[in-house]
Amino acid sequence: MRYRLGVLTSGGDCSGLNAAIRAVVRRAQHGYGFEVIGIEDAGRGLMERRIVPLTIESLDAQGFDPMLSTGGTFLGTINCSLGDVEKEIQDGYRDIGLDALIAIGGDGSMAILQESARMGGWKMVGIPKTIDNDVPLTDRSLGFDSAVRTVAKAIEYLRTTGVSHDRVMVLETMGRHAGHLALHGGLSAGADAILIPEIPYTIDGLLEAIDRTSRMRNHLFAVIVVAEGVAAPDGMICKVVDCQGRDRFQGVGELVVSALESTTKGRVEARATVLGHVQRGGPPTALDTLTATMFGMHAVDLVALERFDRMVCLRGDNVEDVPLKEVVTAGQCLVDPQGQLVRVAQGMGIYVGEV
Ligand code: F6P
Q: What SS3 state is found at 225?
């Protein structure tokens, strides 16, 4: 009997997903002779039995190998609940005839799929991906590095217009409750202040930082990065609840802008930019394609060794694996306010709130 391995992507997309699927297909076919079946649109595809056979040849596109360099996921994904269809999803695994499944997802998807696997008797291995970098028990998730690159690029672009106009440029980044993306992007591109959900800030502290850098430059100019999940000094978080009951964060950048302008009675002129889904697109960085390749290969090796209910993870430069159960019970991985990167930011004279 030919081993039939499924692969799907679930949750918000990011750069590097196609490279991970490619790695799964190459290792499975080349290393073990497995048949690989792509499942479209995550749980919805399982529910509707929508599949696509994957081979090394079909993904290579006559030498162009587009899977390595394209963003998004060609299998499609969903980032929402499907309602009361759990049984149909669970049965999809059996009806499609899978012997094992590799699920590429963030912390939310891992929790949902791990439960489906437990209830449906699936044999599953997970690969962590998310631009938020908040999946626990891995040093980095797939897609994070590419998103950091995009944040850094945006800061570079905002700097030239900001300094030309003597304005404070506020960049709102994604990340939900985690500040990793804002912190890494801001630090790597030399932002003057970085506000993250894990550390409270004050308008006075922020203004002090702006005035300090402005004096040094002789321009009333600064770049401030603010993560979407940051609470205002009065505790308010800018979010709306969408029709699925999920929090959707938006507007904290504008809030910071109006606080700066009103507190200084217009002495500071500021503008907000919401980077939004741009952070999820674009070609993956070399680090992300490398991570995708290592993760994909390790996931297939785990399947071949019949080591299921595990998630591949990164420890330093090494790819290892951890029990999925521990991942879904560990709680979200947030920025440590006492951690090295926060200390580096402070050491560089960057305002990171009232640590
Ligand atoms: O979890 C990834 C993420 O991009 C968050 O940073 C962001 O808040 C959210 O997804 C946006 O989700 P959606 O694509 O559903 O708008």
A: strand
Query: How far apart are alpha carbons 171 and 151 in whole angstroms?
Result: 9
By C-alpha distance, which of 34, 117, 45 is closest to 74?
A: 45
Among the atoms of ligand 1, which is closest to the Cα of residue 249?
8
Please check whether residue 179 is in contact with residue 200, taking contact to mean a CB–CB distance below 8 angstroms: no
pLDDT along the chain (355 residues), means of 10: 92 98 98 98 97 96 93 95 89 97 96 94 98 98 98 98 98 98 98 98 98 95 98 94 89 98 98 98 98 98 98 97 97 97 98 96
Catalytic residue among 132, 134, 288, 321: 132
Site of tokens 């401030």: 224
Closest to 352 measured CA to CA, from 340, 220, 150, 137: 340
Give Cα separations from 185 to 144, 147, 179 (angstroms): 10, 8, 10
- Return the structure tokens found at 328: 């879904």
Describe the crossing of helices 180-188 and 144-165 by its angle, rounded to 10 degrees: 60
CA of 146 to the centre of ligand 1 (A): 15
| Helices marked H in 225-323 | 252-263, 286-304
Taking the CA atoms of residue 241, residue 247, residue 251 and residue 255 in that order, the dihedral angle to the nearest 10 degrees is 100
